[in-house]
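Deliverable D4.2, example record:
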Amino acid sequence: VTGTISTVMLYYFGTPMASFWGFFTIFFYVVVYTMWLKRSTPYNIVIGGAAGATAPLIGWAAATGSNSLVAWSMFAVIFMWTPPHFWALALCMKDEYAKANVPMYPVVKGEAATRRQILWYTIALVPFTLVPYFTGHSGKIYLVSALVLGLEFIRRAVMVMKVKELSAYWKMFGYSIVYLLALYVMIMVDVGLKGN
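Output generated by the structure prediction step:
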């Protein structure tokens, strides 16, 4: 019911494209991710991350009626952020996932492989965060913020590789939440100060 109402509202108050992305997100999350991927593959959140990453596409489409390179770059940021964010939590909750027969990456591939994937995805994520600056949609405030936040994210991923303890996993998970929030706050601050 709420999904139907939200889709109609996005169409009426936003644009048809925003409504489409809203519907796509709900369908993909409920049917593709929750009902199928979550219990069928250890890559569930990699593919399923597409559902969580569509928020910038919905917002951009609602405001402009289209999707641009910068909107897709913001999609890519969340898409690439999802694995290190969720796998850090999965390392903390590995036993619970195993008991529930959910084939999360640490359960199927092991902790060492998960730690490596967290590091590689975190490194791969940072260049995507720089796209708004290089396409002229943000300024130096955002650029510096994205680099500082990204380097700290990478540092924490390295600590996950080195420490191999629950405390490091929880810290990585906690920082991942702060990271994404801070990144998007800084792009709003930057654009707001530019007056665009």
